[in-house]
Amino acid sequence: MRQIDHFIVGKMPPAARFGDVLDPNNGGVQARVGLGDAAVLAQAVSAAQAAQPAWAATNPQRRARVMFRFKALIERHIDELAEMLSAEHGKVIADSRGDIQRGLEVVEFCCGIPHALKGEYSQGAGPGIDVYSMRQPIGIGAGITPFNFPAMIPLWMGAVAVAVGNAFILKPSERDPSVPNRLAELFQEAGLPAGIFQVVHGDKEMVDAILDHPAIAAVSFVGSSDIAQYVYSRGVAAGKRVQAMGGAKNHGIVMPDADLDQVVNDVCGAAFGSAGERCMALPVVVPVGEETAERLREKLVSAIHALKVGISTDADAHFGPVVTAQHKAKVEGWIQTAVDEGSELVIDGRNLVLQGQE
């Protein structure tokens, strides 16, 4: 059984607990990931504290050169990363490449970080008073990221934190942990000093350790609204800066003069791309007026029937499996709730069987 460990500096402590990493295409266990605790985090923090001052003292141009090399390495390994991502998440390869590409765009922004780090100077702000501001790293930041974008969101957080001179500790979802580890390896290959970008794996125990550790100055989180509330409350109580981005399901309003062919294309991409496991999934679409609703429904039904469901490696599939059997059961429960509450069920995919992939 393949084992996924933390990516931290120093000798790897033996894991006392493990989580299963599933293959969404068949529901089987493909690997196990070590679930860390406060002791593992303390080791990562100690390494970050040792490495961060010298990295912060490195001039921005030199830090930017590391980002340039990191960008080139991601581009070189994008197929490998996409296959790794699809194997643990279940989204099709095209969606996985998009996941990586959207993170890569932030890495690309970080290649110009010297300009973003410039401060300001105001002469004569008051009688004999000049005012200036400087941008300085805060020390150690941490990111707690969700399963649905295991490349994009860690890169959004970690690339910027590192580029401006901080050390960064990432706690990705334990459901698909391999891509974050591989990104950490590529960071070091690009020339990032050991200890500046580390990955710790775990569940709530690790999250709490991050929120409580006094040396971690800031935490960024993306996930459900309930957990975002928890992360924010506990993090700020410990004196940290906290970004807590919660549930972001979007709604779509369709006006009577809308181009319905474009609407259908956009709605299908949003609702079914990545099997709907993303913030742009548009779970609710509201057409304005009965006529608009009927025309949209007719076009949507035809478009949905034309979608091909497949496994994540199927190049012709529009979407693959959701991440776990529990997630599938939850979606089926929402469909049944809609029926129980009086909705008209126009399309029911609950009994879909893929030949050869039963």
How would you describe this protein?
Strands 8-7-6-9-10 form a 5-stranded parallel beta sheet, sandwiched between helices. It has a 3-stranded mixed beta sheet with strand order 1-3-2, with no helix packed on it. It has a two-stranded antiparallel sheet with strand order 4-5. It starts with a strand and ends in an 18-residue tail after the last helix. The chain is globular and about 70 Å long. The model has no long low-confidence stretch (mean pLDDT 95). Helix 3 crosses helix 4. Strand 9 (218-222), helix 9 (225-237) and strand 10 (241-245) form a beta-alpha-beta unit. The protein has 2 domains: 2-121 and 132-245, Aldehyde Dehydrogenase, Chain A, domain 1 (3-Layer(aba) Sandwich), CATH 3.40.605; 251-340, Aldehyde Dehydrogenase, Chain A, domain 2, CATH 3.40.309.10. By secondary structure, the chain is of the alpha/beta class. It is built from 12 helices and 12 strands. Helix content is 45%, strand content 16%. The chain has helices spanning 38-57, 60-76, 78-89, 93-110, 113-116, 152-163, 178-189, 204-212, 225-237, 260-272, 290-305, 325-340, and strands spanning 2-4, 17-22, 29-35, 120-126, 129-133, 140-144, 167-171, 197-199, 218-222, 241-245, 251-254, 284-287.
